[in-house]
Write a structure and sequence with these properties.
13 helices; 76% helix; globular
Length: 278
């Protein structure tokens, strides 16, 4: 009897790998290579002068600092939101679950304009904060608000599947042994969800570092105060300083590569801890 041949939808390994490498080269590797090649036209001293300029350094501090703060905030409230969606049933649950993905679908410029309208001095929310001395729009705090908005879904969607797989009987067993709620969370729940939570944190941080559209409207773009690093790149491009723009972009790319390496390590750790390492 003739051996049956398995029908495959995709082509063979070599052809598939060839298409993959060609696609990645055209879409990813060549543009990134062009950035590094353009930056190579600068001497080491010129490169250092560009990336260490006071205005650029101030943008690094704002972008990375606010991105870190936004990711930390999203880790806390994203976990609470994911827990509510998984553990409880309440009116409007499906609507809230769908709204979590809104920052993915909403154009970033629209998000920035909407947040600015809400948090300006005469906005729906800003008019109540301004008498308290809290200014959000056109301040570094506005950058934080925008980055929290765009980063929340990454934490929720990373933690949510882990919580769904977590059996409630484990919590009940801990409670039956006399554990308090905080003890149950710290010793039973947190060790299971921590890898996913850290992955969500890293994803939210990486997304926030490169955010542009939703930030420039609410930030105010005041030099040395509320300028983000992507805006510095755009500013140099508008001044036809392409080498300066690519030099700053290289710094951002190197950080992104480091974050991707960290994210991949965290994902592998999550898979290993949950027993789903394929």
């Amino acid at each position: 009897m003739a051996a049956t041949q398995t029908s495959r939808v995709l082509p063979g390994f070599r052809l598939t790998l060839g298409y993959t490498i060609a696609y990645l080269s055209l879409i990813v590797l060549l543009p990134l290579g062009a950035v590094f090649l353009k930056t190579a036209s600068l001497s080491l001293a010129e490169f250092w002068d560009v990336i260490s300029a006071p205005r650029v350094v101030a943008s690094y501090k704002l972008s990375f600092g606010m991105s870190l703060a936004a990711a930390a905030i999203n880790s806390v409230f994203g976990l609470l939101l994911a827990w509510s969606l998984v553990r409880y049933s309440f009116p409007g649950k499906r609507l809230i679950d769908a709204l979590v993905d809104l920052p993915f679908a909403l154009p970033t410029a629209v998000a920035g304009i909407a947040l600015t309208a809400l948090y300006a001095k005469n906005g729906w929310i800003g008019q109540y904060l301004d008498p308290l001395g809290i200014q959000v729009a056109f301040k570094p705090l506005g950058v934080l608000v925008a980055l929290v908005f765009i980063g929340l879904p990454f934490v929720v969607r990373t933690v949510q599947p882990i919580l769904e797989d977590l059996d409630t009987e484990i919590e009940e067993a801990a409670a039956s042994l006399g554990a308090q709620r905080w003890q149950t969370f710290r010793h039973v729940i947190l060790p299971v969800i921590l890898p996913a939570l850290m992955t969500g944190f890293a994803l939210a941080f990486a997304r926030a570092v490169g955010e542009y559209g939703s930030v420039i409207f609410i930030a105010g773009n005041i030099p040395m105060v509320s300028e983000i690093t992507p805006l510095m790149i755009i500013t140099k491009l508008e001044q036809y300083d392409y080498t300066g723009a690519t030099a700053i972009a290289v710094v951002m790319l190197l950080l992104s590569f480091s974050l991707l390496l960290l994210i991949n390590s965290l994902q592998a750790w999550t898979a290993k801890r949950t027993g789903r390492n394929h």
